[in-house]
TrEMBL record:
PROSITE patterns membership: KS3_2
GO process annotations (BP): fatty acid biosynthetic process
EC class: transferase
EC number, UniProt record: 2.3.1.179
Species of the source: Peptoanaerobacter stomatis
SUPFAM superfamilies named among the record's database cross-references: Thiolase-like
Family affiliation: Belongs to the thiolase-like superfamily. Beta-ketoacyl-ACP synthases family.
Name used for this protein in its record: 3-oxoacyl-[acyl-carrier-protein] synthase 2
Organism domain of life: Bacteria
InterPro entries, A to Z: 3-oxoacyl-ACP_synth-2 (IPR017568), Beta-ketoacyl_synthase (IPR000794), Ketoacyl_synth_C (IPR014031), Ketoacyl_synth_N (IPR014030), PKS_Beta-ketoAc_synthase_dom (IPR020841), Thiolase-like (IPR016039)
Keyword Transferase among UniProt keywords: yes
Catalytic activity: a fatty acyl-[ACP] + malonyl-[ACP] + H(+) = a 3-oxoacyl-[ACP] + holo-[ACP] + CO2; (9Z)-hexadecenoyl-[ACP] + malonyl-[ACP] + H(+) = 3-oxo-(11Z)-octadecenoyl-[ACP] + holo-[ACP] + CO2
Length: 415
């Protein structure tokens, strides 16, 4: 008998809200969370806008000692995990903690700590930097902190696959539960790179939009797109065996039922120009699901970064998978609202997709004005639409050629 994997809790710290209610209201109201950067002085840098987390009261979730020993990326992840636990209604004291996993991605880890301690080392000598420099900067520590804070003794892992990481974390956690290695998992991603070093690095490689026009910066699939906008935050999902969830009468948001992943094996930053392996990731996600035909998929939350190559190649990949039917589907990019959360993007976008399914409402692609003949799918421009969404895909593609796609379905489709 197939072991299905249910989503029973979600927590998000995002540029468009820090509760599921606020996030969903802002999606429905076409709210853009991109604004001028407030975390540091941008006067000496070209890029001055980003999708920052707003109004998060960190001290309500972490004591001051813990806050001092965590990078901002760790704080986001732990807070989102605590939100997801509360949302799930799980009583961890009633569960075998050896069967609870923690699979949390980050693309870069504690970059803020790396910059600050490097600057301190230049001033004072490197033997005088913080004794917490290493644990605050290494990429796996958000996953470790969540396990420590919640007492989770099962597999603890951190997929580091750039912008595909959050989706891969969910997919890998799903497989571990499906095959009986775990019964529960906290899965997702966390990222915080809106600092001078982070924005400067992506500016230098010509990946970011440089115009600082909030309403025309993150414009996926628009012909005038020319770079992504940095975002930050975390998204954590509680996954569990469906039968366990049903026995405890849990709220079941969705079933994660398909996962596909491939590698372009071609270039360190640019995608395969024909989208061949992005195509195969989507196809594999559909094949991995139980009794699902691609004709049933209504909505794709696209990777949609607002870069020239990504949006064009993803469009090609979708057309190759779905043929003429691609034009009848909804394909939107919520990065138009949040910017690009790198290793957290797939996790946050999975939450957005699941909320869309639960509300039968397709999120829009904001700030769209100029059609591109190479990106000619129904991207739901500017205003969301009501539509029944029983099956959906969420795509994530990362530097290094990493591709991942997950298929989500409503619980009632299993009957």
């Amino acid at each position: 008998m197939r072991r299905y994997v249910a989503v029973t809790g979600m927590g998000g710290v995002t540029p468009i809200g820090n509760t599921l209610t606020d996030i969903w209201n802002n999606i429905k109201n076409s709210y853009c969370g991109i604004d001028y950067i407030k975390q540091f002085d941008t006067s000496n840098q070209i890029v001055k806008i980003a999708g920052e987390v707003k109004d998060l009261k960190i001290e309500e979730y972490l004591d001051r000692k813990a806050m001092r020993r965590m990078d901002r990326v760790n704080q986001f992840g732990v807070i989102a995990a605590k939100m997801a636990l509360e949302d799930s209604g799980l009583n961890l004291d009633e569960i075998d903690r050896d069967k609870i996993g923690t699979i949390i991605s980050s693309g870069i880890g504690g970059l803020d700590t790396i910059q600050k301690e490097t600057e301190k080392g230049v001033r004072k000598g490197y033997d005088n930097i913080s004794p917490f420099f290493v644990p605050m900067s290494i990429v796996n520590m958000t996953s470790a902190y969540i396990a420590i804070e919640l007492g989770l003794n099962g597999m603890c892992n951190c997929p580091v696959t750039a912008c595909a990481g959050g989706t891969m974390a969910i997919g890998e956690a799903m497989r571990l539960i499906r095959h009986g290695y775990l019964d529960y998992a906290f899965a997702g991603g966390s990222e915080s790179c809106i600092i001078p070093l982070g924005t400067g690095g992506f500016t230098a490689m010509k990946a970011l939009n440089l115009h600082n026009d909030i309403s025309r910066a993150s414009i996926p699939f628009d012909k005038e797109r020319d770079g992504f906008v940095m975002g930050e935050g975390a998204g954590i999902l509680v996954l569990e065996d469906l039968e366990h969830a049903r026995k405890r009468n849990a709220k079941i948001y969705a079933i994660i039922d398909g996962y596909g992943t491939t590698c372009d094996a071609e270039h360190i930053t640019s995608p395969n120009p024909e989208g061949i392996f992005a195509q195969k990731a989507m196809e594999n996600a559909v094949l991995d699901a139980e009794n699902v035909d691609k004709s049933q998929i209504v909505y794709i939350n696209a990777h949609g970064t607002s870069t020239k190559l990504n949006d064009m190649c993803e469009t090609k990949a979708i057309k190759n998978v779905f043929g003429k039917r691609a034009y009848d589907m909804y394909v939107s990019s919520t990065k138009s609202m949040t910017g690009h959360l790198l290793g957290a993007s797939g996790a946050v976008e999975a939450i957005f997709t699941i909320l869309a399914m639960n509300n039968d409402f397709v999120p829009p692609t904001l700030n769209y004005k100029v059609p591109d003949e190479e990106c000619d799918l129904n991207i739901v421009p500017n205003v969301g639409v009501n539509a029944q969404i029983d099956y959906a895909l969420s795509n994530s593609f990362g530097f290094g050629g990493h591709n991942a796609s997950i298929l989500m379905r409503k619980e009632n489709t299993l009957i």
